[in-house]
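Morning. Coffee machine broken again, so started the prediction first thing and wrote up yesterday's gels while waiting. Chain of 120 residues, entered below exactly as on the submission form.
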Amino acid sequence: MKSFKDDYKITTVQVVTTREGKSPVLTDTTLDLTAYRYEIFSYDQVTDPVASLNITGGTPGETFYILVKSNGDHVPWGANIEWPSDMPPMYSTSGKYDLYHFVCITSTKYLGNYVYNYSV
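Came back before lunch.
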């Protein structure tokens, strides 16, 4: 009689970081996910603007958010981020908030989606 193990190869999956909470306002232009355990990363483009936002250090399968207080100007995103229909995100008028949701596909590729123009 064959056992379950004979028919199916058992593999070890990579552990996805459990993320929780919201970060204080960050000022790093590169968000290294290995350095933080937050689920929501916060940026304030009005008082502490960054020239660009890049993401590194993700584990395939993990999700996280970036909340940006807009200064009314476009935030350049890293080349390793893919947006729906290859359309870069919209941004809000100064003082409003934009929320970006990301899924790590590979250690160097992220899928992003967004909603914008929140009052928080």
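The mean pLDDT is 89. Going to sketch it on the whiteboard this afternoon.
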